[in-house]
């Protein structure tokens, strides 16, 4: 467009020159892309080149889209000025459109960078999530390998109770005893069959039970939107059951509910009969069966063929889990307590034991 304006502006200058010399009513011709005076300068030229001059006058008219054999300076000037005006207006429209397109392009580039940043963050988050999942899996496996051992379970439970404020001291644990029990049950070569790294992880975990418990309470806390029902049999102190019943009855009268924090690793089983055995075999005077409806428990996962038990259907709740009591009844000397998992809350009291 700018080239067309430049060309037409140059033609206007040609016309101005012709007008100065020959007047605005003089005819013009088009030669070599320029407007010139339309008549021959003398009689001889008119005889020799009259035909060419006529053709060039017609070319001038054609150039300006005029259906005549010739065109005057004034007519040509008027047409070209209007044409240049229209071309300038069109150029301004194009420039405005270009500016808008450039603005849109800048916006799209910004969006591109924004989306790129978001995709990069998503990729980082996915990478971190995978890493976190791998770490959680490793923590669960080490915890499970230690937890299935009697001394290991005692140490882990007591440490979780210390960290929750149930008690002040935790049991000691010698990691070598865990390794020895694994060898006793599965054979001396169990750690030479691809489990050497696991042996090191067990020893490392057993050497720092407080840190393992901190990691495990997060790894085992996996809330979902699907509840499952499991059972737990245990003994309980008379003070603990009395506190629980009194609070439950009070809440029932006042149409309230109390939220309790489990405060320790809370082992449950899908097998009701197995849980009942634990209640029956308890040395405590008060025997309790918990029916637990919850969604954050995680199954124990002992890797490398090191599992001691294959049919406990055990599902472990983290110390981070919170429950409300929805029912308490007594059958055949056993307290049947129904727990329902709820969202966590700050400063929730510990579940009485």
TrEMBL record:
Protein name: NAD(+)--protein-arginine ADP-ribosyltransferase
The entry's keywords: Coiled coil, Glycosyltransferase, Nucleotidyltransferase, Transferase
EC number of this enzyme: 2.4.2.31
Sequence similarity: Belongs to the Arg-specific ADP-ribosyltransferase family.
Catalytic reaction list: L-arginyl-[protein] + NAD(+) = N(omega)-(ADP-D-ribosyl)-L-arginyl-[protein] + nicotinamide + H(+)
Keyword Hydrolase assigned: no
GO molecular function, one term: NAD+-protein-arginine ADP-ribosyltransferase activity
SUPFAM superfamilies: ADP-ribosylation (SSF56399)
Pfam families: ART
Gene3D superfamilies on file: Toxin ADP-ribosyltransferase, Chain A, domain 1 (3.90.176.10)
Annotated InterPro entries: ART
């Amino acid at each position: 467009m700018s080239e067309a304006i430049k060309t037409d502006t140059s033609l206007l200058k040609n016309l101005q020159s012709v007008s100065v010399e020959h007047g605005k009513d003089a005819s013009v011709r088009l030669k070599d892309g320029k407007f010139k005076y339309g008549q021959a300068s003398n009689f001889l030229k008119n005889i020799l080149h009259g035909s060419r001059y006529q053709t060039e006058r017609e070319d001038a008219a054609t150039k300006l889209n005029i259906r005549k054999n010739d065109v005057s300076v004034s007519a040509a000037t008027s047409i070209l000025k209007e044409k240049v005006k229209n071309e300038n207006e069109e150029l301004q429209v194009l420039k405005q459109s270009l500016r808008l397109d450039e603005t849109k392009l800048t916006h799209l580039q910004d969006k591109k960078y924004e989306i790129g940043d978001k995709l990069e963050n998503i990729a980082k988050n996915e990478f971190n999530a995978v890493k976190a999942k791998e770490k959680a899996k490793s923590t669960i496996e080490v915890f499970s390998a230690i937890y299935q051992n009697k001394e290991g379970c005692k140490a882990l439970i007591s440490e979780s109770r210390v960290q929750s404020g149930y008690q002040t001291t935790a049991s000691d644990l010698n990691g070598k005893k865990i390794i020895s029990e694994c060898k006793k049950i599965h054979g001396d070569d169990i750690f030479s069959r691809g489990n050497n790294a696991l042996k090191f992880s067990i020893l490392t975990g057993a050497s720092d039970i407080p840190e393992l418990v901190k990691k495990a309470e997060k790894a085992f806390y996996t809330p979902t939107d699907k509840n499952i029902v499991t059972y737990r049999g245990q003994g309980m102190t008379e003070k603990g059951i009395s506190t629980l019943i009194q609070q439950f009855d009070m809440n029932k009268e006042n149409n309230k509910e109390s939220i309790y924090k489990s405060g320790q690793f809370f082992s449950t089983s899908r097998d009701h009969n197995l849980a009942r055995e634990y209640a029956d075999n308890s040395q405590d005077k008060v025997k309790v069966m918990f029916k637990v409806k919850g969604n954050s428990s995680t199954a124990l996962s002992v890797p490398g063929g090191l599992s001691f038990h294959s049919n406990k259907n055990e599902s472990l709740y983290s110390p981070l889990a919170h429950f409300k009591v929805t029912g308490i009844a007594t059958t055949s000397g056993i307290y049947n307590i129904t727990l329902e998992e709820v969202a966590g809350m700050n400063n929730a009291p510990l579940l009485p034991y």
